[in-house]
Write a structure and sequence with these properties.
The protein is mainly alpha-helical. It is about 70% helix and about 0% strand. The protein has one domain. It starts with about 25 loop residues before the first helix and ends with a helix.
Length: about 230
Amino acid sequence: MGPGALTDHVLAYCERTGPGFWAEPADALSNVGFLIAAVALARRQRAMSSAQRSQLGAGRHLPGALALVGAASFLFHTLATVWAGLADSASILLLCCLFLFTFLNRIARLGAPASGALSVAFALVCLAASLWVPHRFLNGSVAYLPNLAALAAMAWWLGPAGRALGRAAGLFCLALALRTVDQSVCQQFPLGTHFLWHLLNAVVLWIALGALQSRITTRARSSSALGRR
């Protein structure tokens, strides 16, 4: 990476045909979906009792991490520079690792050290998929397959209680398909499909993060009720 590489412009999506700030209006503005989901989750969290919020642990920061994803993606799809793309990817990885850590620590009860180690291992797998697989293969969507696998595994682990995560995983498959075909539909649909990836992902994350919040607080209420017997 040369000295000017971080400020180089990225032309990676159908909608963008030049370096202008508003060259990707749909891709940029569709990030409002992440912000809406983050606000909804934060409001839901504020409505909880202090005891319930404390049970969330590191998961209390998930709405903020989701808002950061929306902000970083907006920067990338307006500035369209290498550094903005790195910030976008880093924010997504942070959110996914925080989600996984919270699930492993608060739902699977593996404890913070083991949950942290597995989350770091997950991050390394995601980075390896991003760096070693050519971006032209599936339009770079391979980097998100570990996220799909982790979400599906969590849904499977929970069994019937993981139906919401299962629905989120199914919807994420559709979102990934739309992200993957973006470059191949440019001639037929110049707007591209990347903005739909954003909007569907906002729904996926609202479902998944909301399900995680509910599962943790439900378990906390059940444990509290058993303790009073």
